[in-house]
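Tutorial handout. Part one gives the primary structure; part two gives the three-dimensional structure as tokens.
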Amino acid sequence: NKLIDGFIENANLNISSRHEYEIDGGFLDSKYSRVLLEYKYPHGQSHITESLDAPGTKKVVEQLQSRFYGFNKKEKRSYESLLGGGLDGVNILFIRRQGDEWDIDAPKPITPYSIERLLRALVSLGAQGYSYTASQLASHFGSDSLLAQKAVRQLHSVLTGSTDKKTKVFF
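Part two.
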């Protein structure tokens, strides 16, 4: 918690965090806006291994899935806008929900690269506004959106009204 909180402070990010966040009859270890984290003890039965079939790994995945449901119910956030992470100081895994399917990354050893992924998620999902999911991008910038229609009309107007020789070759 202290390291992540320090990163947020040093990066001057405006991300709300809560620890031991009560949700759906249980407690989420940490939440940073839409990033949900569960920490496990690296020794004993609850540790995360590099196999999704290991008991500790299965348990943290089930726990995160339950937290997604509770978070959706309590905070009215779409499943697609959330990222779950399970870590035990040795391994880390990430979980997302895409439509009706769970996208669960196999646990990997904690390395600078896996921590970078976690920090990037904090920066992008912790920001206020819409998440950068395909469905969100399509709804805001796809062919049916007013913004995209207006942008295409303006681009068309500029290009067809241009006197530039190279532009005339294409249009």
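Part three, for discussion. Residues 11 and 123 are 9 Å apart (CA to CA). The first strand starts at residue 17 and ends at 23.
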